[in-house]
Design goal:
Blueprint: H1 3-98, E1 102-107, E2 112-115, H2 134-137, H3 144-154, E3 160-169, E4 172-185, E5 188-198, H4 200-246, H5 250-277, E6 285-287, H6 289-300, E7 309-315, E8 322-324, H7 326-342, E9 348-356, E10 362-369, H8 376-379, H9 398-408, E11 412-418, E12 422-430
Parallel strand pairs: 7-9
Antiparallel strand pairs: 1-2, 1-5, 3-4, 4-5, 6-8, 9-10, 10-12, 11-12
The structure holds adenosine-5'-triphosphate (ATP) and magnesium ion.
């Protein structure tokens, strides 16, 4: 057996193997082609689905972005709006707080829902609590009339206005005006707003104005009367003075002197009336207050009224010359020194102190006596014209004239006193009144 023969089965096997591999290879190629086609299709499908999904996502992203932009814009608008609202709220609050009337908002159960800063003038409470009971926080409103009107307003009986009503606030008599307005929500009343005003000073001013009107009428009357009395009086005094010179009978002379003294008193009263009703305009010059006080005292201390009185002067050298009407200021000193002496009929001490007020363009003059003093009630009236406790002896014009003279000088005068202890008159006068000064200088 040759080699070829021997290898024939191997060759056959090899061929068979070749065919098998060939067929298998073909099958593999075929199936891989088929499979790859399917995979490619699948991938294609997947890619297109993915693409459309991506498209959709990008579309949605755009939409979301637009929504986001819109939202951000709206948020910004909202922030601007809320800032605007806060500013308006603050502005309205400032307006409400700036009014010099008490404003309180309450709900139907009389609980405070809002109040402005000014209301603290109407309560003794340190802090007004929101939601607190109205009458607990504001006891002045407990007044029967006010309570009734507030409750009526809350119960749909319309707004109210009480023009003036006396109440007690922290122990002081106070006059209030109170108004109330219903607060409505849709058609229902949900509370009320109350407006409170303290009109005590205003009422005082009205009554003062009425007094001034009376006073002005009185001044006119005084002027007329003074004129009518003064002329014949001048004739009477001149005649009695002549008579006194010629009369030798001592008794008649004494009687005539008494008549003359009374006539002088009438004349003095009339001069006072004239000064009050028609004060002459002040003539401003430079004057030395200390010198004027010393001169006035030298003149007065020889009068019988001052005989028993010890006079102490403490006149500061730091007091400069001031711009003033010498006659008016002298008259003020005379009135005040005489009042002091009259209050110390059984001896006493009259102290006069002058000083320059520190850091101010003012001179202070203090006149202190150890006399009978002035009661609290009288002290309120001493500057009123014709107020006097010296029955038959005084006209009650001294202090009212002094007051108007000091006011003419843009100064101030006040009196402190204690019954049986004594009285202190304090005067403040400005040093300079350049616009008013005239050339004359009194040394
Ligand atoms: N220093 C004082 N001490 C006690 N009371 C005084 C004193 N000064 C003034 N008064 C009181 O004030 C009142 C008014 O004083 P005012 O000088 O205006 O009038 P008057 O002294 O009564 O009369 P007039 O001064 O016109 O003679 C006095 O009647 C007196 O009651
Ligand atoms: Mg007097």
């Amino acid at each position: 057996m040759d080699v070829n023969e021997a290898l024939a089965p191997a060759v056959t096997l090899k061929r068979i193997m070749f065919y098998i591999f060939f067929i298998f290879g073909c099958f593999l190629i075929f199936s891989s082609i088929v499979f790859s086609r399917q995979v490619t299709n699948l991938l294609k499908n997947l890619t297109s689905t993915l693409k459309s999904a991506l498209d959709e996502i990008s579309h949605k992203k755009n939409t979301i972005n637009t929504i986001n932009v819109e939202l951000r814009r709206r948020l910004h608008d909202c922030e601007a709006l809320s800032k605007q609202i806060r500013i308006s709220e603050e502005y309205i609050k400032n307006i409400i707080d700036s009014i010099s009337s008490g404003l309180i908002a309450i709900d139907k159960s009389l609980r405070i829902t809002y109040c402005n800063d000014f209301v603290k003038n109407f309560t003794t409470e340190k802090k007004i609590q929101i939601n607190a009971n109205l009458y607990k926080s504001f006891s002045i409103l407990k007044n029967k009339e006010i309570k009734k009107r507030i409750e009526n307003t809350i119960n749909n009986k319309g707004p109210f206005f009480i023009e003036k009503i006396p109440v007690t606030l922290d122990g002081h008599n106070t006059i209030l005006s109170v108004a109330g307005f219903p607060i409505k929500s849709i058609d229902e009343i949900i509370g009320a707003t109350l407006l409170i005003n303290d009109i005590t000073e205003q009422e005082k001013m009205y009554s003062q104005m009425a007094d001034y009107e009376k006073l002005s009428a009185l001044s006119q009357l005084a002027l007329g009367a003074a004129h009518e009395i003064n002329n014949p009086l001048l004739g009477i005094t001149s005649f009695i003075e002549l008579m006194l010179e010629e009369e030798r009978d001592v008794e008649k002379k004494t009687k005539a002197k008494e008549v003359l003294d009374s006539a002088y008193r009438i004349s003095e009263t009339i001069r006072g009336l004239l000064n009050f009703a028609r004060p002459t305009p002040p003539k401003f010059t430079k004057i030395s207050l200390n010198k004027l006080i010393s001169e006035t005292i030298s003149f007065l201390q020889h009068q019988p009224l001052f005989k028993k009185i010890k006079i102490e002067k403490n006149l500061s050298e730091a007091v400069p010359q001031i711009t003033a009407d010498v006659n008016q200021i002298r008259q003020v000193f005379i009135n005040i020194f005489i009042n002091a002496a009259q209050a110390m009929s059984n001896s006493g001490t009259l102290k006069i102190i002058t000083n320059k007020v520190k850091f101010e363009d003012l001179i202070e003059i203090r006149v202190i006596d150890t006399g009978i003093g002035i009661s609290e009630n009288d002290l309120k009236k001493v500057f009123e014209p014709f107020f006097t406790t010296k029955k038959g002896e005084g006209t009650g014009l001294g202090l009212s004239i002094s007051y108007s003279y000091i006011k003419n000088h843009s100064g101030a005068i006040k009196i402190q006193s204690k019954v049986t202890k004594g009285t202190e008159v304090i005067i403040h006068l400005p040093i300079r009144q350049e616009a008013k000064v005239q050339s004359e200088v009194i040394e």
